[in-house]
Amino acid sequence: MGNREKLLIAARECLERKGYTRTTARDVTEAAGTSLAAIGYHFGSTEAMLNTALHQAMEEWGDRLERTIGDAGDRSSSPVRRFERVWAQIVASFEDDRALWAVLSEMLVQAQHVPELRESLTASMAEGRSGLAEIFGDIAAPADPGSARLIGSLCQTLLTGLMMQWLIDPEHSLTSGELTDAFRLLATTALTEH
After folding, report:
1. Is 174 within 8 Å of 166 (Cβ atoms)?
2. 3 inside domain
3. Virtual CA dihedral for 125, 60, 66, 162, nearest 10 degrees?
4. Is residue 92 in some structural domain?
5. What are the helix and strand counts (H, E) for the chain?
6. pLDDT tens, residue by residue, 123-149
7. Does residue 18 lie within any of the structural domains?
8. Residue 163: burial class (beta carbons within 10 Å; 0-12, 13-18, 19+)
9. Cα(119)–Cα(164) distance, rounded to whole angstroms?
10. SS3 of 173, please?
11. What burial letters (b/e) apply to 32-45, b meaning 16+ CB within 10 Å?
């Protein structure tokens, strides 16, 4: 394993243990067994390395979610049931990947002050919207790219908000069933009003 891979593994471990703002270059290089110069050589900066490590972790989460959702997306189930199953998997990931979500929420705040981080997160969010559009588009069957973008954006908004609620107060955060029921109530109300 090369220094770049060692640094990324160590960066993820440090991010999970210490968070984004408290992880230093020295923390990562000590954990990786490399020199400080290796960060500059492979990534250009500590922030770029941490952003790369987090982006990699989010991609892996997306891949795991897609594999897990393959089972949840059984086409013999109704779209509502599949919607609920997919959200059940997402909510389960909040528990399984709590450290990842905590770091991501910390980065969202930091992005307001660090333009490079904002750019990186903007790109990651675009990928995330696309992935969510693909996952949920399979359920909603959007007719065009504009509809797929709307579905992906709505699901990303729900995911971010639900994740923040879950990190702060998991006991009172919506379950996948409650989220599905809330959507039913909104849809019923919106479609019956004149």
Report:
1. no
2. no
3. -50
4. yes
5. 9, 0
6. 888 888 888 888 777 676 666 788 888
7. no
8. buried
9. 21
10. coil
11. bebeeebbeebbee
Dist CA 191 CA 84 (whole Å): 21
Question: What pLDDT, on a 0 to 100 scale, did the predictor assign at position 95?
Answer: 87
- Using a cut of 0.85, tell me whether the model's pTM lies above it: no
Please state the domain count of the chain: 1
Residues 6+ apart with CB under 8 A from 4: 38, 42, 43
**Distances in Å between the alpha carbon of 45 and those of 38, 42, 125, 145, 181?**
10, 9, 22, 37, 46
pLDDT tens digit sequence for 95-123: 888 888 888 888 888 888 888 888 888 88
Supply 192's token pair: 């019956």
- Which CATH number belongs to the domain containing residue 188 in this structure? 1.10.357.10
With a CB cutoff of 8 Å and minimum separation 6, the contacts of 45 are: 39
The residue written with tokens 């110069």 in the block is 37
Torsional class of 35: left (φ above 0), alpha (ψ -120 to 50), beta (otherwise)? beta
Domain extent at residue 179: 51-192
- Token pair 């109530």: residue: 185
Residue 72 structure tokens: 């949840």
Q: Identify whether 45 is part of a domain.
A: no
Structure tokens at 91: 């909510």
Instruction: Map residue 175 onto helix, strand or coil.
Output: coil
Amino acid at 23: T
